[in-house]
């Protein structure tokens, strides 16, 4: 029987594992593990450990960004249906591995327990193991929910958008009003203005102006 170890993977091991997965795909872990054993000193890992290392750490499709509130809600929704079948739940969360989903789920539960126990005396604090707590509907509903509430500002903005949307629905669609074309009123013909007549006085060679 192959002895399992928990010692950290080295950069060389990771590099070789990536190369072998690229060559043999994701279904030949026994072969991958055998080749790893020939090239890595003191190799004692199992095929399952190779697979888990790839799925949880090396797969380039893994999402490592912070979990969104929507992702957490979807996680809780699927947990109510599938329980601890993390690989099944991972099908609904793109880029999240089963192991990362499990770790995040229990991280949230532990945060909620700490939050619950913070201002309570010892006799009222939650002290049971998490698996036992989740079997009880009271504690399941208390603990299986996002640990972070939305910021007040974001909540107010969301509420304001909802109110505005409801107002638009009540008002109905906007009507396309044709702009009134302003017409310029016809002006009455102005009275003829007496303009000066211009003529030259040849004798004086000056311009003289005279009005009728």
TrEMBL record:
- Could you give one GO CC term from the UniProt record? nucleus
Give every Myb-like domain span: 8-58, 59-109
Query: Residue ranges of region Disordered?
Result: 150-188
- Ranges where the HTH myb-type domain occurs: 1-62, 66-113
Q: Which CDD domains match?
A: SANT
Q: Which InterPro entries match?
A: Homeodomain-like_sf, Myb_dom, MYB_TF, SANT/Myb
Query: Where is this chain compositionally biased, Basic residues type?
Result: 167-180
Q: Where is the signal peptide?
A: none
Which Pfam families does this chain map to?
Myb_DNA-bind_6
> Residue spans with biased composition (Basic and acidic residues)?
156-166
Alphabetically, the GO molecular function entries are: DNA-binding transcription factor activity, RNA polymerase II-specific; RNA polymerase II cis-regulatory region sequence-specific DNA binding
Q: Which PANTHER family match?
A: MYB PROTEIN-RELATED (PTHR45614), MYB-LIKE DNA-BINDING PROTEIN (PTHR45614:SF274)
User: What is the protein's name according to its record?
Assistant: Myb-like DNA-binding domain containing protein
């Amino acid at each position: 029987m192959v002895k399992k170890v928990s010692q950290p993977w080295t950069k060389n091991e990771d590099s070789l594992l990536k190369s072998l997965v690229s060559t043999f795909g994701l279904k030949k872990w026994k072969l991958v593990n055998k080749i790893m054993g020939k090239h890595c000193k003191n190799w004692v890992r199992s095929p399952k450990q190779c697979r888990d290392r790839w799925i949880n750490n090396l797969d380039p499709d893994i999402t490592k960004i912070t979990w969104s509130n929507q992702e957490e809600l979807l996680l809780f929704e699927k947990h109510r249906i599938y329980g601890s079948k993390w690989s099944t739940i991972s099908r609904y969360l793109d880029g999240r591995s089963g192991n990362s989903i499990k770790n995040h789920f229990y991280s949230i539960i532990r945060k909620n327990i700490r939050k619950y126990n913070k201002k309570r005396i010892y006799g009222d604090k939650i002290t049971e193991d998490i698996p036992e707590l989740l079997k009880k509907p009271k504690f399941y509903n208390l603990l299986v929910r996002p640990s972070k509430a939305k910021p007040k500002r974001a909540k107010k903005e969301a509420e304001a958008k909802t109110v505005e949307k409801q107002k638009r629905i009540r008002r109905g669609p906007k009507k396309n009003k044709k702009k009134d074309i302003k017409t310029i009123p016809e002006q009455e013909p102005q009275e003829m203005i007496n303009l000066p007549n211009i003529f030259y006085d040849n004798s004086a060679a000056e311009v003289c102006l005279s009005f009728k």
